[in-house]
């Protein structure tokens, strides 16, 4: 494609060189540049891509898109200066890959918790209804049956548009994607056309990046601000920020709730560890999920499917056949009569929700032993709050390692314990080794009890000093049960 064509949705501040040059690829990673490529120099949070312009040219870049025009310019290379390369990268990538979101019904899901569950359930539901679909999620990306490993909740704009382009080539009609606050703030979704957006909830998370809760909230809101008037915006009326999200959107607004009047409503009729019976808009349905927060997730799925033209009865029949997402409130039954539940809960609110759901099912007939930690090189402020939430709703708590990354695991545990008083500490034990922590919880558990292993969910690794070591909470539990 000609460079001139690629630039039609951007507003260059300056151009040095020939815009009639043929471009054979677009990259933001200089190491991936090949002959004829356009290199986009991004000002990242860790590294400034402008310093890799010479390397990109050395590998064959024919054009450079930048925010700061380099003083030294290579002969035969076109330089395009724009005000914001983050914004321009998405628009250029979208055009290079044939504007794929215009050929798909693309639905984005944002919020603190529930994004993976909602996006995955929509993907599974629409496939069961006979449609070809794609999924972009924290756990894994899918183009129909083809699994593509996910490194980020939302890929960079080049990879994102390449994946959407492959979905179009595979004949997909629908694509469902998680839109993280990082991705929205960094404009990774710039240039995409969404048919709809869903808001789940908003609680403290990622303040290491956003610095303030207001910045975090505004990043989420920017997604809805950018929706076109042809789109729908479904928001959680039970969340205090639910209506804030959609106050400036051009999209058609719909609400869902389990507590008040809304466009889509549900209530729990009965709940046990195998699932729940619900009343959804006057229809009874059995589902293989537990917890009030999952009722909200299912309502969001139901509402989106309704907005995408599906009949209520067809939606509910399909919902009744769907299973929970890997590592989301996933039960593992012990031969000794207690239940272990593996969940990805890694924020205070998510942990509180999961524990509350377990209490609703147990109804005072067993004890809860919680195993949890906190990630390294992330928001330090949530660590003591995580410990407080665990202690508040558990009979015993074992504080352990999560993904320490480049931090000392004991220091992370100390940060968590700092949030507890002497009385709370009586029910807490700290064990750095995660496997030993889970084993200790199993030794404590009696028949009828529940062990919650929180924080890692679907992840099959522990990241220590930059190295990912194989570690799977479910595997560890099965190993202990079979010993």
Describe what you observe in this structure:
Catalyzes the addition of meso-diaminopimelic acid to the nucleotide precursor UDP-N-acetylmuramoyl-L-alanyl-D-glutamate (UMAG) in the biosynthesis of bacterial cell-wall peptidoglycan. This is UDP-N-acetylmuramoyl-L-alanyl-D-glutamate--2,6-diaminopimelate ligase. A motif (Meso-diaminopimelate recognition motif) lies at residues 402-405. Belongs to the MurCDEF family. MurE subfamily. Residues 327-457 form the Mur ligase C-terminal domain. It is a single chain. The chain is α/β, with parallel strands linked by helices. It has 17 helices and 24 strands. The strands form 4 sheets. It has an 11-stranded mixed beta sheet, with helices on both faces. The protein has a 6-stranded mixed beta sheet with strand order 17-18-22-19-20-21, sandwiched between helices. The protein has a 5-stranded mixed beta sheet with strand order 1-5-4-3-2. Helix 10 crosses helix 11 (312-319), helix 12 packs parallel to helix 13 (382-392) and helix 16 (434-444) packs across helix 17.
């Amino acid at each position: 494609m000609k460079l001139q064509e690629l630039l039609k949705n951007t507003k260059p501040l300056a151009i040095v060189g020939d815009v009639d040059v043929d471009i054979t690829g677009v990259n933001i990673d200089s190491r991936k540049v090949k002959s004829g490529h356009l290199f986009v120099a991004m000002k990242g949070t860790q590294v400034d891509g402008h310093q890799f312009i010479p390397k990109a040219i050395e590998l064959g870049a024919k054009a450079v898109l930048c925010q700061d025009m380099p003083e030294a310019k290579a002969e035969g290379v076109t330089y395009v200066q724009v005000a914001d390369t983050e914004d321009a990268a998405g628009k250029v990538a979208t055009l290079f890959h044939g504007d794929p979101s215009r050929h798909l019904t693309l639905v984005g899901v944002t919020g603190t918790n529930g994004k993976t569950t909602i996006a995955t359930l929509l993907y599974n539901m629409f496939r069961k209804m006979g449609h070809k679909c794609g999924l972009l999620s924290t756990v894994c990306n899918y183009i129909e049956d083809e699994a593509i490993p996910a490194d980020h909740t939302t890929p960079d704009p080049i990879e994102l548009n390449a994946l959407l382009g492959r979905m179009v080539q595979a004949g997909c009609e629908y694509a469902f994607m998680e839109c993280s606050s990082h991705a929205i703030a960094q404009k990774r979704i710039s240039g995409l056309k969404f048919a709809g957006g869903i808001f789940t909830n908003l609680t403290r998370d990622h303040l290491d990046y956003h610095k303030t809760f207001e910045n975090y909230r505004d990043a989420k809101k920017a997604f809805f601000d950018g929706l076109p008037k042809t789109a729908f915006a479904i928001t959680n009326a039970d969340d205090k920020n639910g209506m804030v999200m959609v106050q400036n959107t051009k999209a058609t607004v719909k609400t869902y709730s389990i507590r008040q009047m809304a466009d889509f409503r549900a209530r729990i009729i009965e709940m046990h560890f195998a699932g729940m019976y619900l009343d959804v808009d006057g229809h009874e349905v059995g589902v293989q999920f537990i917890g009030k927060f999952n009722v909200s997730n299912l309502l969001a799925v139901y509402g989106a499917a309704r907005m995408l033209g599906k009949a209520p009865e067809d939606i509910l029949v399909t919902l009744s056949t769907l299973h929970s997402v890997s590592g989301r409130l996933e039960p593992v039954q012990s031969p000794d009569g207690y239940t272990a539940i593996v969940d990805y809960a890694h924020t205070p609110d998510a942990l509180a929700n999961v524990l509350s759901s377990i209490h609703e099912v147990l109804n005072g007939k067993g004890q809860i032993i919680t195993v949890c930690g906190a990630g390294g090189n992330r928001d330090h402020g949530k660590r003591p709050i995580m410990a407080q939430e665990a202690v508040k709703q558990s009979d015993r708590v074992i504080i352990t390692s999560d993904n320490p990354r480049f931090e000392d695991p004991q220091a992370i545990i100390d940060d968590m314990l700092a949030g507890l008083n002497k009385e709370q500490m009586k029910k807490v034990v700290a064990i750095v080794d995660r496997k030993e922590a889970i084993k200790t919880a199993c030794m404590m558990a009696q028949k009828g009890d529940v062990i919650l292993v929180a924080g890692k969910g679907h992840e099959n690794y522990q990241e220590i000093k930059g190295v990912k070591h194989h570690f799977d909470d479910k595997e560890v539990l099965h190993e202990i049960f079979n010993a």
